[in-house]
């Protein structure tokens, strides 16, 4: 690996309130995710110093956008608890205060404010995600008949009445109350496609292509190119609580894509098969029972789970139990394009465990290609406020 700085691709309410779940990662059908380090949080994992911060090969053109992304995060991380257990709110006061008025070398900012820390041996695995652009319309029209639903009012969290009290641990499951007043699972994808929500849930917009919309749902946000040329940005509002199935893996196991076929194990290969086999496409898509709901955004970029806009080659999705939101991360990966500084601003449904990252690539054809093929191993260094490791390991 050579060190090349280039960068690749909730709500928490009590009781019965609906709580969006994180989006899944890019489904290439080929990614074999390593087993996570067996620890509940980074604080319970083995921590050790990384390389001396002065030896890190930061570059100005890499550090400058990372500094801007870090500054955008400060309004959030100064007022929320770090679920990784590594930092306290007060730890971020010095770097956030320095960032607010920093006007000199951005490389010096990171070297003056942070130290490097490794979780476990630092062995990292990275995938990529992007912001798709598909055809859509604000109103239903010929050629635009795939509903982009807003968050349903009847999607709630609750414990089934017949569930023993002793088994009610963690967050209550997502579901709905049926006509008999019983708490049941929410509608799955096949039921929603068949019209289970018609006339019951607000529609944010209408998409033209169900396959393209399927992959936009996996990404959790995207752009709709409207008939008049205007672009509408939509972002993640919630999920139906049903299980996510990576259709790429299912298709590979059935011999539909991959070795011995004309379809590669990539997002592009999955789409090509679905296009060539329209009579079977719906059944394959419905293997994934998950459905994502959206809201319209007027932000400069899509919103990550930190509730700040994420930008190409700046933002990375992490497991917040192992990486503090807002923390800089330095990746040195086999795929050199993923090397460099990232800021932890998002998470994902399968981004679990230490040193697991999903890199954001923005929008456009190249973003789609890079994110769809990103699957790389390497080493990760967390950048934490100076003195953090000494406090944790006296």
TrEMBL record:
Keyword line:
Cell wall biogenesis/degradation, Lyase, Signal
Q: For this protein, what reaction is catalysed?
A: Exolytic cleavage of the (1->4)-beta-glycosidic linkage between N-acetylmuramic acid (MurNAc) and N-acetylglucosamine (GlcNAc) residues in peptidoglycan, from either the reducing or the non-reducing ends of the peptidoglycan chains, with concomitant formation of a 1,6-anhydrobond in the MurNAc residue
Instruction: Note the PROSITE patterns from the entry.
Output: PROKAR_LIPOPROTEIN (PS51257)
Q: Which residues cross the membrane?
A: none
Q: The Lytic transglycosylase MltA domain covers which part of the protein? A: 133-295
UniProt keyword Lyase present: yes
In terms of SMART domains, this protein maps to: MltA
Signal sequence segment = 1-17
Q: Which domain of life is it from?
A: Bacteria
As recorded in UniProt, its EC number(s) are 4.2.2.n1
PANTHER family annotated for this entry? MEMBRANE-BOUND LYTIC MUREIN TRANSGLYCOSYLASE A (PTHR30124)
The protein depicted here goes by the name peptidoglycan lytic exotransglycosylase
């Amino acid at each position: 690996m050579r060190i090349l700085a280039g960068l690749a691709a909730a709500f928490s309410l009590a009781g019965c309130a609906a709580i969006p779940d994180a989006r899944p990662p890019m489904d290439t059908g080929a990614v074999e995710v390593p087993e996570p380090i067996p620890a509940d949080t980074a604080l319970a994992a083995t921590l050790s110093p990384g390389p001396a911060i002065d030896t890190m090969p930061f570059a100005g053109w890499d550090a400058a956008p990372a500094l801007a992304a870090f500054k955008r995060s400060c309004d959030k991380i100064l007022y929320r608890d770090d679920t990784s257990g590594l930092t306290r709110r007060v730890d971020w006061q010095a770097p956030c205060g320095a960032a607010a008025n920093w006007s000199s070398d951005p490389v010096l900012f990171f070297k003056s404010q942070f130290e490097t820390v490794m979780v476990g041996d630092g062995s990292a695995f990275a995938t990529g995600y992007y912001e798709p652009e598909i055809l859509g319309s604000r109103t239903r029209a010929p050629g635009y008949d795939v509903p982009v639903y807003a968050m349903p009012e009847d999607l709630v969290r609750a414990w089934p009445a017949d569930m023993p009290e002793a088994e009610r641990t963690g967050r209550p499951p997502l579901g709905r109350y049926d006509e008999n007043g019983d708490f049941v699972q929410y509608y799955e994808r096949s039921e929603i496609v068949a019209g289970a929500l018609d006339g019951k849930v607000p529609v944010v917009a209408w998409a033209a292509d169900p396959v393209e919309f399927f992959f936009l749902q996996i990404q959790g946000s995207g752009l709709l190119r409207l008939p008049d040329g205007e672009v509408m940005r939509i972002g993640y509002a919630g999920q139906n609580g049903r299980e996510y199935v990576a259709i790429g893996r299912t298709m590979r196991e059935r011999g539909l894509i991959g070795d011995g076929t004309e379809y590669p194990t990539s997002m592009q290969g999955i789409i090509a098969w679905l296009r060539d086999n329209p009579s079977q496409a719906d059944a394959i898509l419905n293997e994934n029972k998950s459905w994502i709901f959206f809201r319209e955004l007027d932000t400069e970029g899509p919103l990550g789970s930190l509730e700040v806009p994420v930008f190409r080659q700046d933002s990375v999705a992490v497991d917040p139990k192992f990486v503090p939101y807002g923390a800089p991360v330095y990746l040195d990966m086999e795929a050199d394009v993923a090397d460099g500084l990232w800021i932890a601003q998002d998470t994902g449904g399968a981004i679990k465990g230490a040193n697991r990252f999903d890199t954001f690539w923005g929008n456009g054809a190249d973003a789609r290609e890079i994110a769809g093929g990103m699957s790389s191993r390497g080493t990760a260094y967390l950048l934490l406020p100076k003195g953090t490791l000494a406090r944790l390991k006296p």
